Amino acid sequence: MTVLDVSRGLWRAGLLAVLAGVLLPGCESRTPPHRFPLTTTPATDSVPAPQGAGATRPTSEASQPSARPEPAVVPASASLTAPAASKPRRSEFRALPPTSERGGQLHALATRLKAPGGRVEDPCLETDDTGCARSALTPFYTALDGLLETPGTTPTVIAAFGNSLIAGDRIVDVVREDLTAGFGDGGRGVLLVDRMAPYGGRNRTAAVSHGWQPRTLGELKAPPHPFGITGVYHLATEDRARGRFKLEGEPRGTLWWKDVKGAGPLVVSVDGTVLARTEPRGDGASRTTSFELPAGAKWLDVTAEGRGAIVQGVVLQKDEAGIVLDMLGVPSADATLYARLEEDALKAQLQQRDPKLLLFFLGGNESKRLEWKRTDLPTVRQDLAALLRRTRAAAPGSACLVVGPMDAVQDGHAKGKPLTQRPFLEATIQAEREVALAEGCGFFDLYAAMGGAGSLARFNQAGFMHDDLVHPRGHGLDLLGQLVSDALLAGWMDDGAVPAPALKTASEDAPASSASSETAEAVP
Question: How many CB atoms lie within 10 A of CB 84?
């Protein structure tokens, strides 16, 4: 991954130079240990690869999804406590960061895989006599402007909820690095005391852990305790269970924990010095313990004095302006399972994080469960609307964006046979789009951006899918992250310059045709 290593002053000067029509030079790249160089060769097609995060790409040839009209979703945006209306304006600092080496390679890969990219649908929520006064993503775009104009010390937080597509962090890692390259790095944000499974990386967890059992909202049978916004809690299964975090100069931190009956205290220490000790009451509440970190501290330990203690997360953040992206994805999650979030914890923790963008990567498990006849489209609509309303009520000043599912193929495909598109996939996308727009959120069609029907087959032929043909791997994940990052940055550039479409209810936006997309389509 490429991280720009330039000062904010130089970056601002570069931005003004772009506005004046001067071409910015490329930047040196460095690849962190968890990444590996792209081994694919640049495309030799006559179609040039996009040359910027928001570069215009050809329109997707994938047909628009169609679905049987469902009962209208009643917009909830009017009931939310909205920030004071402010006319979107084009900041004098707005210009796309230079394309990184990694970004250029992924754009070339997008051309090879026929992934055209796409734009965010950003409905207008408030109008005035001159046009749209506030769109769904205005709070986020305004926060980005603030990071450039008057940086201060307050970061802009993105809370990314989702399923296994982001739980490994790699897709949102691309989004995080692209945004921190342009707007600064505000720190790591929400972390876990241990991994969600015995395997995987530790980018968003303690560096070393032992003695913890993970429980997630994605489990088939509901665990005994509800969840905070991480969708995960870790239960101490032995005395002195510990998670050790390598500090990066953070001045303070916060421990999120569950006060369960019979559990002993949790101890927070730095380099052997105790900073805080929890005082359990055993009433089942989700609690917060904050602590100050001494200058020069190297290691932070969270230790359970006895079995049964529960940790929901640890927040480590800098006192610097920039982007913080909290990865809150959970394997097997869907909007229905997010109902397992405890209401008090949801409100308190989202208010503490004060995100400027609520980002949802959902739809893959919904379409799979529709295929298995474990749910139905009205339930998919209802539960997504409920999730959006709950999170937006807890963070009323935040923008909201739903990212639809990627291409998917039918379960039970025979080896050597042509892949068949998953039934209900396009119906799920259409349902999510209608609900998102009706609830006052933006929508990004990842399926169309990656090339629509047949795109998963192309990813698989290029070696970017796991054997289950469900989960992308390697630079397939990176490319999906790049598509989302490109769309966000392009939307920021266009905010206030391109009129936002008026907000419509689901019934107004439903397709006139009664054709169903529930029938599987053959994928070449």
Answer: 6
